[in-house]
Amino acid sequence: MLLGSLLCSVALFSAACDDNDKFPEEETAPQPVWVDGDVRVLTTTNNRSKDLTPSAISFSSKDNMSPRSIYLDPSQTYQEIDGFGAAITGSAAYNLMKMAPEDRAKFLKETFSVTEGYGMSYIRICIGCSDFSLSEYTCCDTPGIENFALTAEETSYVIPVLKEILAINPDIKILGSPWTAPRWMKVNNLTDLQPTTSWTGGQLNPAYYQDYAEYFVKWIQAFRQNGIEIHAVTLQNEPLNRGNSASMFMGWEEQRDFIKQAVGPKFAAAGITAKIYAFDHNYNYDNMADQQGYPTKIYADADASRYIPTVGVEHQVPDDCAARPVVDSAQGQLLHVGHEVGREVGPVVPVSSGRLGENQLLVGIGGVDFVELVAVAAVVVVGSPGDVARRVGVGVDLGGIALLVGHVVIVV
Question: Which phi and psi angles does 304 have, rounded to 5°?
């Protein structure tokens, strides 16, 4: 199967605003009028001669003169694409709930409906706070796992938005990721094992492996009690990043031991069917020599690998392409958690090994979604690497708070 130069990317955009700023009329994304055909397409050109212009592609066995042709060979199959989607952080949900209900319903339908919109099929949410939350918190800030409870960020914002999305697309899959464990479970490092009160950095105290595994179980069960099934979790967002506003370092040996000693058995004992996705960071392992091959080292351990069907990777550094072959040694799918900023991700490459391939992307898309400015865009790019996706979205006046949430576009 030849996929030409089909590229997947995420474009993130932000813009300064003040109380008097308004989005001009031409920046408002139009409601698409779909055209009949085998494949529905929305096209935005770099000179904007086409601006979210609907069209359709129909398959044919005849040659054509198009400079961009996609050839499909039904006899040759590879891995399936499980879905594409967006992140719903606390601040994104907060802003969405500030919209008028009819405007929010229209936007969510345009984004998630498989019949009347773009059909996004995957959502990433945060387990506790992220670097785009209303505050720094976890769901168990008081010491003792018996004190676990969802907070207002989940119950007032994230869960109501998820329920509205599920009403539009009941088949959507939801992935959860923590930015940090509760601080009482963290230590400064695994040598000194001194308690730390910092949201930033630190490591999970092995003495609390069982409590932290129970934390995941309780979080999944709490969402289920609210009518929301969690499809999968990663165990640490960016585990090699010590410097995020909320963060926790988790090297491959720690994650291996946490999986096989605690979270895997806890999920099994509690009947939790949510998948556990390993790693969730850059292909280049942040250039840490002792962390190279992070997920493959976990997969090499039979007691850990039986719990992890999938590897999560992010693409935030220019030299990621050189490190991609490592994912082919893993056992399941590839979860691609994107934070790309208007740059080329690389071709969707079919593989014949039956293992991981770039044509097997699950894309959980992170956005620049601060409390007072939201900008999220999911972009499928076809064209030269020099093309830059323009900002598209729905501009909403929230009394001085700007909301800009992007859409799926094609740049040619």
Answer: -85, -45
